[in-house]
Amino acid sequence: MKRSARYISAAFFAGLMSLLMIAAFTAGAVKRSRVTWDRTEITISDSMDNDFISGADIGAFLDSRFGSLKGRPVPEISVTEIEKAVDGRSAVKKSEVYMTRDGVLHIDVVQRTPMVRFQKKDGGFYADEDGFLFPLQKNGTAYVPVIDGAVPIKVASGYVGTPQSPEEKEWTERIIRLVRHMNESGVWAENIVQINVRENGDLVMIPREGNERFIFGPPVDIEDKFRKMGLYYTSVVPAKGEGFYSSVNLKFKDRIICRKQDK
Question: Whole-structure pTM over 0.90, yes or no?
Fold first, then answer.
């Protein structure tokens, strides 16, 4: 009888603990259901000083999409849906949305960092370091190299995503590598202000100072072509003087072909 009583006591104790746990869970759920949205804290970050998105922009966007959240119970707010909506903005690379117990909705946003701007007759767009294309932004302009002319990327206005053909993707990746080399050099990003694409695919570099036009050719053999451009400035210009040549062709291996300035 004593042994049976011990078993009964143990079973009773286990059942009591289960009831207490259920009660605590229910109380917690009821407490959470009473928590209401108080305010939103939005953090914008990226690796450059872009002003594409502001906290006010995100707040206004959420109000237009979901209506006013203030005073609404927390369970009514789907952080997953909010995060999905914020991620859908073209200048947003990634967001993280979460709610804390004090009723604060936290939205951490990482902006896309443009590497280059493509400008065509029918409009312009950016490409980030991954070759992801997104539209120009009405709230700000990024100070990045501009490539215009016969840009071989065919996308509609407002397009967001990767280049649509393998050829366009490969060309974009080569351009990103070229711009990255310019940025890392500490020289060319400051001295080259524009890059024009000719109909035959040649890139033409336009320097900040001087009348020379550097015929770069397609975006291949990048390091060697910039090396030859450096040789032009350190060897040819001191010998011939500034403005003596109007064009400098870097397309051909181991050669620099200079054309004299027309008078």
Answer: no
For 147, counting Cβ atoms within 10 Å of its Cβ (0-12 exposed, 13-18 middle, 19+ buried), the class is: buried
Q: Are strands 114-120 and 104-111 parallel, antiparallel or unpaired?
A: unpaired
| Residue pLDDT, tens place only, 108-122 | 999 998 999 999 988
The number of CA neighbours under 13 Å toward the Cβ of 154 is 3
CA angle 228, 233, 234 (to 5 degrees): 90
| Ranges 10-24, 86-100, 149-163: which has the least confidence | 10-24
Domains of the chain plus CATH, in order, are: 39-111 (3.10.20), 114-260 (3.40.50.11690)
Residues contacting residue 128 through CB under 8 Å, at least 6 positions apart: 93, 112, 113, 114, 115, 134
Sign of the CA dihedral running 139, 145, 150, 155: negative
| Three-state DSSP class for residue 254 | coil
Report pLDDT digits (tens) over 176-208: 999 999 999 989 988 998 999 999 999 999 998
User: Do residues 214 and 221 lie in contact, with contact meaning Cβ atoms separated by under 8 Å?
Assistant: no
- Tell me which long-range contacts 203-207 makes (C-beta under 8 A, separation of at least 24): 203/147, 203/178, 204/149, 205/229
